[in-house]
Specification:
By secondary structure, this protein is mainly alpha-helical. The protein is 52% helix and 0% strand. Helix 4 (63-84) packs across helix 5, helix 4 packs across helix 6 (123-131) and helix 4 (63-84) packs parallel to helix 7 (140-157).
Length: 164
C-alpha cells in the first residue's frame, strides 16, 4: 500500500522490526551498501546502474527490495556486456537477426577467460526468478547475499590492473 506523505521518511515496518523480519537500523543498511562499492575503473554506465540498486535497498519501503533485486541482474549483465560484449558482436540467429549473449553465456565466458572467480552457478536462475515474476518473499539477507556476489563479480571484471 502506498504510504501516506507524512510516513514516507519512517522506517518500513519490516525493517523497523515491528512486523516480519528482525529489525534493522538505517545506519546498518547504509553500511551494507557502502561495503558494496565497485572500482572507479568500472564504466560510468555500470557505476550508475549499480548505485541505483544500492539506493533501492531502501529502509523506507520494503517493496523497493524486490525492485533492487530485479535491477541487480540487468546491472550485472550491463557490466558483463561492457567488459566482454564485443566478443559477441556480429553474431546472428537462423533468420539473420542479431543474437547477443545472454547472462548465463556472458557469465560462463567471463569465468572461462578467468576474468571472474566468483560463484556463478545459481545467478541465472535467480535472475529468471525476478525477471519473470515470482511470489517469493524476499528478505534483506537474501537480497544482500546475492547483491554482494554480483558486486564481487563487477569488482573482478573492472579491477584496476596491477602496476609494475
Amino acid at each position: 500500500m502506498l504510504k501516506r506523505a507524512e510516513d514516507l521518511t519512517k522506517a518500513d515496518p519490516f525493517f523497523a522490526g515491528t512486523v516480519g523480519f528482525v529489525g534493522s537500523r538505517l545506519d546498518e543498511l547504509h553500511l551494507d551498501m557502502l561495503a558494496c562499492d565497485i572500482p572507479e575503473t568500472a564504466p560510468e554506465s555500470v557505476r550508475r546502474a549499480h548505485d541505483a540498486v544500492r539506493h533501492a535497498y531502501s529502509y523506507f519501503s520494503y517493496d523497493l527490495l524486490t525492485v533492487a533485486a530485479a535491477q541487480t541482474f540487468p546491472c550485472l549483465e550491463l557490466a558483463l556486456r561492457e567488459r566482454i560484449g564485443a566478443q559477441f558482436v556480429g553474431r546472428v540467429d537462423k533468420r539473420g537477426k542479431p543474437r547477443p549473449a545472454m547472462l548465463d553465456e556472458l557469465l560462463r565466458t567471463a569465468k572461462a577467460q578467468s576474468l571472474i572467480q566468483s560463484e556463478i552457478d545459481y545467478l541465472s536462475h535467480m535472475r529468471n526468478t525476478f525477471m519473470h515474476g515470482s511470489d517469493i518473499v524476499l528478505n534483506p539477507p537474501m537480497f544482500l547475499t546475492t547483491f554482494q556476489i554480483v558486486t564481487a563479480i563487477i569488482r573482478e571484471l573492472f579491477a584496476p590492473l596491477p602496476r609494475g
